[in-house]
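pasting Noncanonical pyrimidine nucleotidase, YjjG family for the record, 231 residues
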Amino acid sequence: MRFRQIIFDVDDTLIDFAATEHYALRSLFNAHHWKLTTALQQRYNSYNQGLWRQLEQGKITYDQLSEMVFRNFLKDNLQINVDGLVIMQEYRSYFSESHQLLPGVIDTLRFAQKKGYQLAVLSNGESFMQEHRLALAGIKNYFSLIVTSQAAGFAKPDKRIFDYFFNLSSIGPAETIFFGDGLQSDILGAENYGFNSIWYNHRHRKNNMDLHPLHEVKNYPQFVKLLKNDL
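structre below
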């Protein structure tokens, strides 16, 4: 095989991020008796994604993001003043309980493992939360190594998170390929570090960053087909 190790992203690669976010946000708003409309949820999605882009670009830290999200969003949209970190902690408690897998994940992990690939995770997120969700989804044991930005101290696409990962991995970047949905985080991160990637473009986005993943797939059966042909 050309590659011996596959690194997977978590949110919107293994676990359905939209379903997770919807569940966590609805649970939070219900607990506080705040009204959550479709328009408000869309504004939250846009605002939250913008903050994550800033994190990936190194403009803010993970702690700053955690404090800002609900403090600013609730004040600007509902005129409610809250302790941002307290509300974020509550939100993440709901988030950590949602673990809906995307179609085809388990069959693909099983097939890749049977083929002899070493499987790993590299995620921008908290260690306990991501490992807990993978365990609830029944797939944690497929991975020999699970690394998060919290543990590394840096977020994808920062090269230092990849340094951290490969210092722990028994397989180097030349024999590793990254499988993820995020252009800005996963594909850019792998490309800047100098190893190959597969863009899991199940949301049908445009590659407007002039990035060059080795392959692009729209679903897991397409990925399995690549695995059958040893990528």
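The two ends are 8 Å apart (CA to CA).
The CA atoms of residues 35 and 100 lie 25 Å apart.
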